[in-house]
Amino acid sequence: MIKQAVIVAAGLGSRLKEKTVSKPKGFLELGGIAIVEWSVQKLFACGIEKIIIGTGYHAEAYDELAKKYPAVQTAFSADYETTSSMATLSVCAPYVSDDFLLLESDLIYDSIGLTVLCNDIHENVILASGATNSGDEVYLAAANGSLLEALSKNKAELTSVYGELVGISKISPAFLAAMCAYYEKKRAEFPKLDYEHAIMACASSHPVFIRKIEYYAWREIDDESHLEMARNEILPRIQENESLRQIRREVLLNPGPATTSDSVKYAQVCADICPREEEFGDVMKWVCRELTAVVADPSEYETVFFGGSGTAADEVMISSCVPEAGHVLIVDNGSYGQRLAKIASVYKINHTVYKSSAYEKIDMSVLENEFKTGKYTHLGIVYHETTTGLLNPLDVICPLAKKYNMVTIVDAVSIYAGMPMELSKLGIDFMASTSNKNIQGMAGVGFVICKKSELEKTKTIPMRNYYLNLYDQYAHFTKTGQTRFTPPVQTLYALRQAILETKQETVEKRWQRYTECWRILVDAVKKFNLKMLVKEEEQSHLITAIFDPDTPKYTFEGLHDLARQHGFTIYPGKLGNINTFRIANIGDIKPYEMKRFTEVLKSYLDSIGWK
Ligand SMILES: *Cc1c(COP(=O)(O)O)cnc(C)c1O
Fold first, then answer.
1. Torsion over CA of 151, 155, 158 and 160, rounded to 10 degrees?
2. What is 262-505's CATH number, 3.40.640.10, 3.40.50.300, 3.30.70.1030, 3.40.50.12780?
3. pLDDT (tens digit, 9 = 90+) per residue, 5-49?
4. Among 386, 410, 468, which residue has the most ligand 1 atoms within 8 Å of its CB, making it the best to mutate?
5. How many angstroms separate the alpha carbon of residue 414 from the centre of ligand 1?
6. Quick check: 253 and 570 in contact, CB under 8 A?
7. What CATH code is assigned to 4-244?
8. Cβ of residue 380 lying under 6 Å from some atom of ligand 1
9. Over the stretch 59-78, which tens digit does the pLDDT of each residue have?
């Protein structure tokens, strides 16, 4: 799996004259966005987690870019004025630790080229296209099929032309080391050595393959005429090609599985791998660490995951964390609290159910009186009751439970990664969530984030089940880097991409986006004269339960079907005697999409004559 990229971007771009006086070539804009930013976004969507940009001329522009994209870091080539791309690559080399993609900064290209290189079986590969007639071609000659034999700007120097160099390659660390060593030897004589000549020079000791896409849409931009051609001809082609690969947009307004980005969907399409390979073990370790880091310090907390939905993670916690002599108090103020209690009863775990209203705040003094009885060793509670959109005040409840020496077990399935939170501050010992809600991945991974000191204490609890046992899964993974049983491989690749995208957006900004969508919904609901179940100020901003319009003409199916025709999926209510429907605004949804949904809602209400 390719996770790193280097963009060489130190050059002066002097052939573009006044266009590059105050900025480097990578910051030429096409379609309103800098070409290097196109490139960063494409690399990122392809699963690249670290992008090193080798800078020189107007390096500050790239340093600014790095602030916007945490995946980007820069490396400065001090003598950029007297050197060329190989010197820049040498400056980046110390930051490369794995196979990587090497790109030039002045390229626009169809993202399929990245996918093709990442999927190529060979270690060192350069991307080529058919004839471009750009006037600035570097021609490639091949031997034995596709092995790089020679390259030149002068066709006449080659026996035959196999393709044209695009400026995107895949390079192994060993090959990079050889290229850098070669440059060190030649530097005094040829300071302006280009990286492609170092590739050629080292190709005798490391085979380099050419991967050619005949009608590939790309352009290197070196002068005004290239820029014109890029704008008028190449960019439209790229955009058409990429739009053909877009997946039909369905906006899920149900509370999970949530809407995902195309890059998360595509992350599942990858080479088969046995999950016992170290390469996949590294992916799982990375995923666990990063899931923890969303809400806690990984030195203090640990993520343990299972193939299963969010309920599997709930079942793991309840069945694995309460010792035989323990007694768990379970707060039930909605169907998910009820579910925790149901799990406890199935396992015959000593528990007491504390009932509270499904749409009004928990009365803290009554709850504290229950804590005071001193009967309980554990507290089980749902952070965000998805039934109604009620957010329980865990910032008060859990610290209080800690005061009474209770271990806290929290179902945070529908709030984790949707709202900033810190487990140690909240006093949460065990927390369950899933891959398909606010983290915006695919369904299939349930996980528990555990305070390590509390997790260790569960070691002596006799196993009540086999597959879903927390300590066994943890101990095995820690010892071997593997799960006990087959993990959902492709779902984990998608989860990896979803985590990268969460880190790029940040949970803080995600919470703001969710809140913005919720605001649009709530304002419309009030304008349409509909009523909400939970008081506005007590709502989570993630899901809204709305009373059915009080007219016999309303049916959930009618609203659902109209919404579905417009690409929106909505969800029925879940409270037995109160008639509501629910709108969740979690997942990869945009405020303009919520706006469109409110228009669909309005047209439905008009159709049933609702005023
Ligand atoms: C979604 C959800 C779950 C898990 O449901 P699954 O269908 O098992 O994924 C558990 N608790 C809460 C609060 C939820 O919102």
1. 110
2. 3.40.640.10
3. 999 999 988 888 888 889 999 999 998 999 999 999 999 999 999
4. 386
5. 7
6. yes
7. 3.90.550.10
8. no
9. 999 999 999 999 999 999 99
